[in-house]
Structures are given as C-alpha cells and as structure tokens.
Design goal:
By secondary structure, the protein is α/β, with parallel strands linked by helices. It has 9 helices and 19 strands. Bound molecules: flavin-adenine dinucleotide.
Length: 319
C-alpha cells in the first residue's frame, strides 16, 4: 500500500481518476489529487514534464526567478513523489471513449475505466521545420529563438526582433522595443481579428517572402527574408497546433477543448487543463487549471457518491 507523509492511503478499490499528460497541468492535478487521496493514474506519452523541459530559463513563474526548465520539472517530480504520486511514463492514451456513460482510456498496455478524467495533453509547438522546411532553429533555442513572447520578451528589451505567428506577440514586443518585424501572412486563426494593416498601424514592419535559415555565430544575429538580411537578435516563433484525435469533447474553432470555470468539458466527468484549453500558454496558467480540475474532480466524485446514496443533486454540483 502506498503512503504519503507516512500515512496509509484509503483502501479504494475503484479507479477514481485518470490524468492524461504529465506536463505542468497534469503534474499539478496529480499533486492535488494525491493530497486529496484520490485514487488515480497519471499517464504520459513520453518521460513527463512536457514543454517545460525545453525552457532554458523561466523568468515569470512567481517565486522562482531564472529557474531552468529541467530544474522546475525535477521540483515537480520530487513534489509528486513526496505526496505519494506516481507517473506512468511512455504510456500514451490511444483512445478515450464514453460508451453508455462509462469512461474508458486505452493505452498500449492497459484499459482503464475511471470515474473521471483530466485531459492535459498540451499542444504542438509549430517550428520553422513544419512551416518552412528550415532545420536550424533549435540550434538557436535560448540563444535568440523563443517560442513564447510573454516568457522571453523582457530579455529582448531594446533589441530588434521578428515575430512569426501570433500578431498579439508582436504588439507585446513593440512595448518593449522599437524594432519589431512581423513575417506574414497572418495565420488564419488571427486573420479576421488582426489584418496586416493593423499590424503596420502599431509601428511594426510587416513583411512577406521566403525565409531562409536563421544566421549567427552562437547567438542569433540575423534572418533573411526575400533575399534581404535583417539584423535581429530575437526570433519569436509563436504558432501552435491544438487538437488530437483522442477526444470527442467539444472543441473551439482552433481545436482547443472548451471548458467552464471548473475546467469541466461538455462530457460528464471529463475535465481539461493547461495549454489544451487555449491561450495564454503559460506554466502558471497550466498549474492553476490543473489544480482547479483536480478539485472539481473531488467535488464530482463526492456528488456521484451522494447520488448513489439517493440524494437528488442539482446538475451544477456535478459539472
Ligand atoms: C521553449 C519554451 C519555453 C517556454 N518558456 C516558458 C516560460 O518561461 N514561462 C512560461 O510560463 N511558459 C513557458 N513556456 C510554455 C509552457 O512550457 C507551457 O505553457 C506549459 O508547460 C504547458 O503545460 P501543459 O501541461 O498544458 O502541456 P505540456 O507541457 O505540453 O504537457 C503535455 C504532456 O502530455 C503528454 N501527452 C500528450 N499526448 C498524450 C497522450 N495521448 N497520452 C499521454 N500523454 C500525452 C506529453 O508527452 C506532455 O508531457 C515555454 C514553452 C516552450 C516550448
């Protein structure tokens, strides 16, 4: 029997929760679930930690300035172990189904039938390889290339930068520095909201044209667009792809899972947290949503038990 803080766990025969994904959101949910003594399984397709593993230095997670991504992952793992939690690495969920009101998650190794699920599978960061067939952007990761303007923008105060992806990131960077290029076309998901004219009206240079491999000896020094060399020290690549064939939950137009304030999806007993629920894509937001999702699961499980005992509860209780 597992223990936490030296105490024996409740002997709960049934599986109460499966958390799919052990990034910031899934690990936070698991830590909360452990502390509430919920009987759960935490799955990850890889080793766990998610996108935090890629962050060179995290400057905006309250209380931990300048922490490296792998170090924050280690701290999350240690916390999880301390509260008796366990991660199943390299066990991707392959199917999540809701047949006759029962939840089932299939992995290569097992079929789990929990009372509730938290989906925390994150999103895919689209780099230059996917978009332009370029190869060397990762060589400059943390040396000029960034995937997150809110995270790394302050490091580029007063420096020339280029944004590929989200125009709102260009607006944010323009507050911090005078020279901002935006490489169009504006991605489809922003086109109605932010046409190129609005970008230019914010004193941002809008460009279109063939992009070549970023240049620099060690640190990023320049990018070449349509044959023209532009001296930039920062290149923010902020395109994301959401969605997975795994779910049957309601998604928004951009493929993110729609949730309410309790992180409940449209499917009873299924919650979602982290990057997969949409912007902002941040550790603090993912951790917060993971915590809320776990507390909502506790409320849901309690509600189910009371219904089984014959109490008539309002639907809001079960959300
Ligand atoms: C280079 C970089 C630097 C960043 N820097 C910062 C920063 O400084 N500050 C900040 O706040 N944010 C930063 N971010 C963003 C931040 O890392 C993310 O917003 C946050 O980590 C998202 O957490 P998540 O748990 O929602 O998703 P993820 O971290 O993406 O985790 C999802 C997990 O789910 C797993 N998974 C996916 N599919 C399945 C499946 N079918 N079955 C089981 N598991 C599955 C994945 O393996 C992964 O471990 C950065 C991102 C990048 C890429």
């Amino acid at each position: 029997m597992s223990t936490f803080y030296g105490l024996a766990r409740r002997n709960v025969p049934e599986l109460e929760l499966v958390i799919i994904g052990a990034g910031a959101a899934g690990m936070a949910a698991a830590i909360y679930a452990s502390l509430m003594d919920i009987n759960y399984v935490l799955l990850d397709a890889e080793e766990g930690g998610g996108l935090m593993n890629l962050a060179k230095a995290i400057e905006n997670y309250p209380g931990l300035t300048g922490i490296r991504g792998p170090d924050i992952v280690r701290a999350f793992r240690e916390h999880l172990a301390k509260v008796g939690g366990e991660l199943h690495p390299f066990e991707p969920a392959q199917e999540l189904s809701f047949r006759q009101g029962a939840l089932e998650i299939r992995t290569g190794q097992a079929a789990y039938r929990p009372k509730s699920v938290i989906v925390a599978t994150g999103l895919e960061v689209l780099g230059l390889r996917e978009e332009y067939g370029l190869k060397n952007e990762r060589d400059f990761l943390g040396k000029g290339v960034s995937y997150c303007a809110e995270c790394d923008g302050p490091l580029f105060k007063g420096k020339a930068v280029m944004v590929i992806g989200n125009p709102f990131d260009a607006f944010l960077l323009r507050r911090l520095t005078d020279t901002v290029y935006f490489l169009g076309p504006v991605p489809e998901e922003f086109r109605n909201q932010v046409p190129s004219e609005i970008i230019e009206a914010n004193d941002i240079t809008y460009l279109e044209g063939k992009l070549e491999e970023p240049e620099g000896k060690g640190l990023l020094e320049a990018v070449v667009v349509a044959g023209k060399r532009l001296a930039v020290e920062g290149l923010f690549i902020t395109r994301r792809k959401a969605g997975s064939e795994l779910y049957e939950m309601k998604l928004d137009d951009n493929g993110f899972i729609i949730v309410n304030r309790q992180m409940a999806t449209n499917v009873a007993g299924v919650y979602a947290a982290g990057d997969i629920t949409g912007e902002p894509w941040q550790i603090a937001k993912s951790v917060g949503e993971g915590a809320v999702a776990a507390m909502s699961v506790f409320k849901y499980l309690t509600g189910q038990r009371m219904r089984n005992l014959g109490w008539a509860l309002q639907d809001e209780w079960m959300e």
